[in-house]
Design a protein that fits this description.
4-stranded antiparallel sheet; mainly beta; globular; single chain
Length: 168
């Protein structure tokens, strides 16, 4: 038995299987085209705002491979000890890393922050981004293709899109 939600879409097992079938079909299309899919949502529970989503990238390498990469983002997590779903205070942003000829470009979606709110920490090839402004808090660890000195990282932020250009 399925339930209907506002707007007429199925909820329950029927809706879940239909959604899964649609996702698999989209992944097949992505694999053929070498593209990317992103889905997200928000909710508020007891005055805490939950943000969740995932990004699926297929065949985006310069080697023409069909590798599938699924990356979750947001602040909804599974607690390792209890197994319960929790809403964390710090959000994990969507991040893309582009390897160019002379530099590596890291692009992160961090709505509500500016470049002055961003703090970087680099240890070998691990970059940690932390940003905070009012009730918006973000944190993400990114494995870079190589080690870069922090003083060679240029940070810009426009409309919540953070760009970090890493040069040798």
């Amino acid at each position: 038995m399925t339930k209907k939600k506002a707007g007429g879409s199925d909820v329950g097992f029927g809706g879940m299987f239909k959604g899964l079938a649609n996702l698999i079909e989209k992944l097949g299309d992505l694999a053929e085209k070498g593209e990317h899919l992103k889905k997200s949502g928000e909710f508020t529970h007891q005055d805490v705002k939950g943000v969740y989503g995932f990004s699926v990238k297929v065949g985006l390498g310069d080697k023409g491979d069909k590798e599938v990469k699924v990356e979750p983002f947001g602040n909804v997590r599974k607690d390792e000890k209890s197994g319960e779903t929790v809403v964390a205070e710090i959000r994990e942003p969507v991040v893309d890393v582009f390897e160019e000829k002379d530099y590596t470009l890291v692009v992160a979606e961090m709505p509500g922050v500016s470049a002055k709110d961003v703090h970087l920490e680099v240890k070998d090839d691990l970059l940690t981004i932390y940003a905070e402004k009012k009730d918006k808090k973000y944190r993400k660890e990114i494995l870079l293709p190589r080690s870069y000195p922090q003083e060679k990282m240029k940070v810009t932020c426009n409309n919540g899109i953070l760009e970090i250009k890493c040069v040798m």
